[in-house]
């Protein structure tokens, strides 16, 4: 039976690269997006043009009712979920903690953490042998910021990713005997357009000198780690955090 993966934030950057690579590896792909339907449609078009199976699923992961509707659509259109990639996340403009508004913090943690918890909850209900499922995998996309802290820039984002790491390790142990493996990937400085959403479109190139490999990573390089953790090749890995940082 064809494995099925749901990728949140799958319309651009690391999510889109993961969707395209997973399709090449034989997965049917549900490409989630919050607002940019055109970008999601283009990812699906590319997958289908290469003979793959893919659908778009709209949902803001910060809104529980939309997450529930998204999982229902995947169930109806593709079938039983095999893998979840919790990739959807936001960053804000560079800011010190002493200038951060509560609204910013609530938005950051609701999207990056609460959204990931709710998506994982729904995935576990479908995958776990406890509920009659066949098992599966969850890959959480964290960040090297979780261990660096991002002072003077994005301490809130870094803290949300630190929470993602703890969530990954805890959930992995909770469902390990139920056929579900849970792992995390921590990208470093990756050349995607998330930097533009934080007001610094040239950030990846500007910070390249801080990376031991002297270059930013690519979305595909992160996607390769994610798809490896989704598949049987990583069958004894759970609760692991894989850094894809160029040595940073």
What does this structure look like?
- There is one protein chain.
- This protein has a 7-stranded parallel beta sheet, sandwiched between helices.
- The chain is of the alpha/beta class.
- It has one domain (4-244): 3-Layer(aba) Sandwich (Rossmann fold), CATH 3.40.50.720.
- The longest helix has 26 residues, at 102-127.
- β1, α1 (13-24) and β2 form a beta-alpha-beta unit.
- It contains 9 helices and 7 strands.
Q: Would you tell me which CATH topology applies?
A: Rossmann fold
Which CATH-level-2 architecture? 3-Layer(aba) Sandwich
Mean pLDDT: 95
Cα separation of the termini: 40 Å
Give the helix level as a range of percent: 40-55%
Highest CATH level, the class? Alpha Beta
Count of strand segments = 7
Please state how the strands of the largest beta sheet are arranged side by side: 3-2-1-4-5-6-7
Largest sheet: 7 strands, parallel
Counted up, domains total: 1
List the helices and strands and how they pair.
Elements: E1 4-7, H1 13-24, E2 28-33, H2 37-49, E3 54-58, H3 64-77, E4 83-86, H4 102-127, E5 136-141, H5 145-148, H6 155-175, E6 180-187, H7 194-197, H8 203-206, H9 219-230, E7 241-244
Parallel strand pairs: 1-2, 1-4, 2-3, 4-5, 5-6, 6-7
Summarize the structure.
The chain is an alpha/beta fold.
């Amino acid at each position: 039976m064809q494995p099925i993966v749901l990728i949140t934030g799958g319309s651009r950057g690391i999510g889109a690269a993961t969707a395209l690579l997973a399709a090449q590896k034989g997965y049917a792909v549900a490409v989630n997006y919050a607002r940019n339907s055109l970008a999601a449609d283009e990812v699906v078009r590319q997958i289908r043009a290469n003979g793959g199976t893919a659908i778009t699923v709209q949902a803001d992961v910060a809104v529980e009712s939309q997450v529930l509707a998204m999982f229902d659509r995947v169930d109806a259109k593709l079938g039983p979920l095999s893998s979840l990639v919790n990739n959807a996340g936001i960053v804000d403009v560079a800011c010190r903690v002493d200038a951060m508004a509560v609204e910013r913090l609530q938005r950051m943690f609701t999207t990056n953490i609460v959204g990931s918890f709710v998506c994982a909850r729904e995935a576990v209900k479908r995958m776990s042998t406890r509920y009659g499922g066949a098992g599966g995998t969850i890959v959480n996309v964290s960040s090297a910021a979780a261990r660096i802290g991002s002072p003077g820039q994005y301490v809130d984002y870094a803290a949300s990713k630190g929470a993602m790491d703890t969530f990954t390790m805890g959930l992995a142990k909770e469902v390990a005997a139920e056929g579900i493996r849970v792992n995390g990937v921590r990208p470093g400085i990756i050349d995607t357009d998330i930097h533009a959403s934080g007001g610094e479109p040239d950030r990846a190139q500007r910070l390249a000198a801080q990376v031991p490999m002297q270059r930013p990573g690519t979305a595909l390089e992160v996607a390769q780690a994610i798809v490896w953790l989704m598949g049987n090749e990583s069958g004894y890995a759970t609760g692991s955090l894989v850094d894809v940082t160029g040595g940073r």
